[in-house]
Amino acid sequence: MDNRLGAPGTALVPTGPSRVSRALARNRLGVSSVVFFIVSAAAPLTVIGSGAVLTFANTKTIGIPVAYAAIAIVLGLFAVGYVAMSRHITNAGAFYTYVAQGLGRVPGVGASFVAVVAYNAMQIGLYGGFGAILATHLKTWFGWNVQWWVLALLAWVVIAVLGVLRIDFNSKVLAVLLTAECLIMLVFNAVELTHPAGGEIGFAALSPSNLVAAGVGALLVTAVTGFVGFEGGAVYAEETRDPKRTVAQATYIAVAFVGVLYAVSSWALTVYTGPDKIVAVATEQQADLIFNINANFLGAWIVDIGRILIVTSLFAALVSFHNTVARYLFALGREQVLPGRLGATHRKTGSPYVGSLVQTGLALVVIVLFVLFGLDPLIDLMYIGTTFGGLGVVILMAITSISVIGYFARRKVAEENLWRRLVSPAIAAVLLLVVLGLTLNQYSALLGLPSSHPAVWILPSVFAVAGLAGICWGVHLKSQRPDVYAAIGLGANSVIGRASRDLPEVSSGSIAGLVPESSDENVADRDRYDVFRVGGDHPVAPVSKVLSDAFLIGEIAEWLVPDLAERRRIYPQYWAMAVEHALGAGDVFAGGELSGVSVWYPAVFGPPHAEPSDVERRLRAICGPYASRFLALRQVMSEAHPVMPHHYLAFVGVRPEQQGMGIGTTLIQHRLRELDETGTPTYLEATNRRNLALYVHLGFQPTGNPITLPDDGPRLYPMWRPASVHRGL
Fold first, then answer.
1. Which residue windows are transmembrane per the record (predicted)?
2. What is the DSSP string of 72-131?
3. Could you tell me the CA-to-CA distances from 712 to 58, 555, 559, 709 in Å, in that order?
4. What is the pTM of this model?
5. pLDDT at 273
């Protein structure tokens, strides 16, 4: 719907497409898709088949099952504050953003450097395991002698392609791989638990006493490494359909699922071999243990399937971590903490393709260096790389827990109780610091190296150097680039994709005489026509006030709430509800001085998700006796809505005192240029005949019959715009 856009007046009307989009594609991931990314990053079959077995062998203890359970509890406590913060901050930068908004911008930049190092180490390290394990299988099955790096580079090529495709396509790939992986694990668990050593199931590996034994630090960091990726829900928040709910649900589901799966699967191994023999058997058989056990009962063919799935498990983790790194680089580039080009997204897929390509290039460099120096892909690249990355994530989680406390201490957020704001994050911070201390104290045991080996202190020092470098860079930005510094941690709200500065100048009368540029317009006047995408964590009130004021007067408003005084009471609450939903589920654009707002919703896989799920209840609470009119309007608009894929211009409104100046036109054209680039048609409902001519100039045409509201109400005029009819508007 539109409000009184008014006759075209003096306005800056840019022509040509924006050079770059700096927002990730919205509404492409649901809860299940985010869970697939999180659990795939964990690589469950690899963790149990290799990580847990090697931990039994290297630490000479049986405590890894209870360590997994203990870490699941710690991370569950961490998640309480983490997802509480995610309800107020929607940003692909996740840890970096949370630290920036909780402890300050300078520490936030330091955390971002640590995150980039840690996640790259995790992702690139997995190439070694993928190549080495697959090479072994090919030699065993077919007698082929293929170098590990050849196979790693094949995976590298596929992941490079997937990284620039739509994120929902990536989630479908992961869904297939992860489902097969988890099914085979359940089958293996059933075999092991139904064939206990000595005919009796033993629970010694689940005893809490294992957490106070020697080497517990190595156990705990190994367990944490198995969960790395669970925090990724917040990284994908900008691409979810409902960030405030999706991130929380996906994070809790992933922690619970992975925690139970790890604890049960590693415990099942001790049940089959006997707790007193698992260390010796794991030392002898290493990563073949899980397959040798099940080959005795399931046959070679199903075990071979398991061997294939451990390779696909590594591949799924590679895809997941690649997407995480790409989005961290995107978030840092968007805010210009790193080169701004990293903040670009692909016009057709919405992927952070520059960040993806940079990560791909870095992975290639590391693989080549490991080949040139003849380093071991399993130990030097995968094992050390992933445990090193896991250490970095523990550091980030501990800092983030403290940041949650700082964030809520400075903001009065009524919907977050004391448990979520303070108690749970404080407990998690203490426990994570304990885990970190134990890990650093026993890092040599974790690496399987003597305590005097240089790697024991060099590897942890890398994070100290990265964090210090980030802090120094943050201080530099504060003193030398205050505009960039001020936007740190703001995510999408830091992006002012200014149409008038991002596009070439336009001559007057460029569109059949529509909204020409005035010859006496000064530079200051142009700011009001700048267009920016409003981020999901932007305050609701300033945006909703624009729409509340814009739609206060008009035929539709008078039909909905005839009494002006009642309308003034109802509209602020009604539009606050609409904007709150739009910031999470739609695309919101505003003028540079917040003089106009447009709200768009994608309708690609069905009708647009243009209202909260509990809209009827909320309308009755907000509108009281007038709720029936709002519900009637909703009903007739829904019945007339087209079913073809499109984008829906739900609202465009301009402050009353600035209507008729072309601001609404500029807002609409800004989005139409982006949609034309992707070949996306558009639909809207005009609220008065006077604006029909304007929309026709923009390429819209009336479609179907006018929508007549009940009780002799006014009419709405549905309009459809095919894709690219006015490319270059």
1. 29-56, 62-85, 106-126, 146-165, 172-191, 211-230, 250-269, 308-330, 351-375, 381-410, 422-443, 455-475
2. HHHHHHHHHHHHHHHTT---TTTHHHHHHHHT-HHHHHHHHHHHHHHHHHHHHHHHHHHH
3. 80, 12, 9, 7
4. 0.66
5. 94
